[in-house]
Specification:
115 residues, mainly alpha, Helix Hairpins, 70% helix, 0% strand, globular
């Protein structure tokens, strides 16, 4: 995922600006949702061909900026709540493997309670 030195740069950036005071878990979660919505906006009203064209244009940088914002806020939130993102993602994969067994869901998009 994100390299430890990048996490440290984010934390240093925030500390140098005295922004920890604004970064409550609630406000980080809100900011994460807002940035994720801005990421969605980049794709809004575009079909797959238009998205491919945008990805190969100067508009790609705007997408990358939104991805970076999402990752930054998620990193702050995980750091502040002492959440090991690798550990929780692996645990979630294991839970999903039980909920979505390959023999029942391969090639299907049904929710676990619909098959």
């Amino acid at each position: 995922m994100i390299k430890p030195q990048t996490v440290q740069k984010l934390l240093d950036f925030r500390r140098e600006r005295d922004w920890e005071q604004f970064h409550t878990p609630k406000d980080l979660a809100i900011s994460l949702s807002i940035e994720a919505s801005e990421l969605l906006e980049w794709f809004q009203w575009s079909d797959n061909e238009q998205i491919t064209q945008k990805l190969n244009s100067e508009k790609r940088e705007a997408l990358e900026d939104e991805v970076a914002d999402v990752v930054a806020y998620l990193t702050y939130l995980c750091h502040d709540l002492d959440i090991d993102i690798n550990k929780v993602v692996e645990a979630k994969i294991n839970k999903n493997a039980v909920k979505y067994p390959v023999d029942k869901v391969k090639g299907r998009s049904d929710k676990y309670n619909e098959y």
